[in-house]
Amino acid sequence: MTEAACQSDAGAGQLQVTREQETELCHYLRTHTGIVIQEHQRDNLRATLQRAVARFGYAQADDYILRLRECSPDSEELEFLIANVTVGESYFFRDKIQMEFLRTGWLPQLMARKKGQPGSIRIWSAGCSHGQEIYSLAIMLRETLPNAARWNLQLHATDINVEALSAAVAARYSTWSFRATPETMYERYFKREDNEYQLNDEIRAMVNFSYLNLVEDEFPMIAGGLHSMDLILCRNVFIYFDAATVAAVMKKFARCLAPGGVLMLGGADLVNTDIEGLELKQAGGVFYYRRMPTGPVVVIHEPESGALDDITDADYVPEHAPHDEAAQDAATPGDTNSIETVARLVQQQRMAECLVVADRYIATQGENAAVLLHKASALASLGRLEEAQQLSHKAVALEPMEKHAHFLNALVLIERNDLGAAESGMRKSLYIDPRFLEAHYQLGLLQLRQGRREQGVKSLMNALQVAETGDPEHAIHGAPEMTYRRMADVLRKEIEIYGSTVTEQLQ
């Protein structure tokens, strides 16, 4: 046999896969998911391709690969491929050294920053697999945090593997998942059912699971709750990515962290330590990245071109740094002092700049609902929720029939854990515009978070109906990179994740 043709280990009766077909499949995965298949992983890739061809009834491997190139991101063919080339194996309280650091180092430091007063704690498990990691953190917080019930715990978990996310939502685990867990711990939080253990509803309700492609999807995002994070865990995900993809995702992670926030990777994740906005720290045997705890930045001089797009980091200093009012007044050229510029800065996630320009606009043009909403969005992204809520209330007062004002106010209420008022706000925005896709989506997530899964799935289906019947290229409000077409793909995955759980409950 030549190198160009590789026979499966399963025997002569198996479909033959050529080296060229393997290479084409590797290129597809790298382009669409960021996953890089190493040489030692080719055997599994080849076996996966053979199983896929048989499972979906294709005559040959080329037919399956052609289908991948033509299908939507929510196709069963792609889901099967991702589920079989990524390793989702995990267990509770994995990596004892990191978990101990989080319990005895990170959490006390975070509480000190928050002056020990109950507030919000925001955690994101990126690449969460079957959920053991984020549920471990939820249990740790319940066990360790004084007056845990008084804290607003925002725990988010995302993955590209829909099958794994469905399992995480169901939260049923075998004994093997507890090999690093004290017996008293899983006796307290799990109930044995046949040969599996079901996580209790209290811990399950603490976590919000959603589909996210770290490579193709944009974040931070207010609507998805992925912003101002105190802790991001992305362990053993980068082993599938090349260096350029890792650098791009790390930059997005940096923008998602609150000042002083921590990013932790897996021991096998090799990353360039020079990431803008992050500093590499060490505590005992644990390495982690910390978002530099500087305040918001402001422009202190005008670039020669007079365009905000040409401003670099050299044009900024922390807010508390000395500067005079004359320099402050010259910060933003007149032709950029517009509502369009404010909106563009929000879309580009340049929130600190947005606040500067918005304040200048208000000083010269006065307040209106649009500028108040953009400024409120920037404040919410920076974790300044009380100020954001005050501005969204003012926007509602100025424009009672402005759907985005009610919508943003509801998002802030979700962040502040006032879920009843948040649902009321979402429904007000839908009363104004029954085809407001973003409100249908957020209402669904809110209902799912409250354990009302049948209602939540119905709201997601309402959002999908709007996405499928609207202009496919229409941009989602506040996320110009997310179109109705892409949102429909995401919604189908979300419905698949939660819909299977609803079906099980109804049976």
Overview of the molecule:
With 507 residues, this protein is an alpha/beta fold. Among the domains are: 73 residues, Chemotaxis receptor methyltransferase CheR, N-terminal domain (Chemotaxis Receptor Methyltransferase Cher, domain 1), CATH 1.10.155; 196 residues, 3-Layer(aba) Sandwich (Rossmann fold), CATH 3.40.50; 71 residues, no CATH class. 50% of the residues lie in helices and 15% in strands. It has a 7-stranded mixed beta sheet, sandwiched between helices. It has a 3-stranded antiparallel beta sheet with strand order 5-7-6. Strands 1-2 form a two-stranded antiparallel ribbon. β15 and β16 form a beta hairpin. The radius of gyration is 24 Å and the shape is globular. The protein starts with a strand and ends with a helix. The N terminus is likely disordered.
The rough form would be described as globular
The CATH topology of the domain at 96-291 comes to Rossmann fold
* Sheet with the most strands: spatial strand order: 8-4-3-9-10-12-11
- Uncertain spans: 1-13, 295-335
The Cα radius of gyration reads 24 Å
> Architecture of the domain at 96-291 in CATH?
3-Layer(aba) Sandwich
Helix content: 40-55%
CATH superfamily of the domain at 96-291: Vaccinia Virus protein VP39
- Name of the CATH class of the domain at 96-291: Alpha Beta
Q: Helical element count? A: 20
Q: Helices and strands: which structural class?
A: alpha/beta
The tally of beta strands, per DSSP, is 16
Q: What composes the largest sheet?
A: 7 strands, mixed
Give the terminus-to-terminus CA distance. Answer: 52 Å
- Mean pLDDT level: 80
Strand content: 5-15%
